[in-house]
Design brief:
Blueprint (H helix, E strand, L loop, with lengths): L2 H24 L10 H8 L3 H7 L3 H20 L4 H6 L2 H13 L1 H9 L4 H23 L5 H21 L7 H23 L1
């Protein structure tokens, strides 16, 4: 890649980031259907031509954000084996917590936008599928009901984070993360007992 391409690529990444952040700010107060390109570009500090260089419409930005979130979660999960997660789910949960606290706009989007329902559904499906593949490949066990138990565990974890972020935060995120990891560990032990 030559220097000009590198500068253009950096500029492109920066512009896309500005557009995504602007959308995430707007969905805190407006429904996705009510957001215009004009207000989005004004908030992002870019012109319409720059917007259309990167996206066709507001929904394309939303798709891009959804892909970013799923990719981030995927990269965390892919670092762990079934055995390491089974023995100590806390490191995975701690990384999830860090991602959540370091991405305020993503978190607000996930929790407070009506448009986030589809993303949460995709996140749950993605995590269930990922954990099921890890579980069945390492255990050599592909019992179908394991998928249902994983759905229960994954759904519970996501619900815990949603509840914490929409609460008064009378418990620290660290404490919630530790307790959730403990519950997950017990759930995984129970899942192993049932599947053997």
């Amino acid at each position: 890649m030559n220097e000009i391409e590198f500068k253009q690529d950096k500029r492109s990444v920066r512009t896309r980031k500005l557009i995504k952040l602007a959308l995430l700010k707007l969905v805190r107060t407006k429904e996705i259907d009510d957001i215009t390109i004009t207000e989005l570009t004004a908030l992002a500090g870019i012109n319409r031509n720059s917007f259309y260089t990167h996206y066709d419409n507001v929904y394309n930005i939303l798709d891009d954000i959804n892909c970013d979130i799923i990719s981030t979660i995927d990269s965390i999960v892919s670092k762990y084996t079934y055995n390491s997660f089974r023995d100590n789910p806390y490191p995975v949960m701690n990384e999830f917590s860090a991602v959540i606290t370091n991405n305020k706009y993503f978190t607000e989007y996930l929790l407070f936008s009506r448009s986030s329902g589809e993303l949460i559904k995709k996140l749950k499906e993605n995590l269930c599928e990922r954990f099921y593949n890890i579980y069945s490949s390492e255990r050599g066990n592909d019992r179908p009901y394991v998928k249902y138990m994983l759905a229960f565990l994954v759904g519970g974890v996501i619900d815990v984070y949603q509840m914490w972020f929409s609460s008064e935060k009378d418990v620290s995120l660290e404490e919630v993360t530790k307790k959730t990891a403990e519950l997950l560990k017990r759930g995984i032990v129970l899942m192993r007992e049932i599947s053997e």
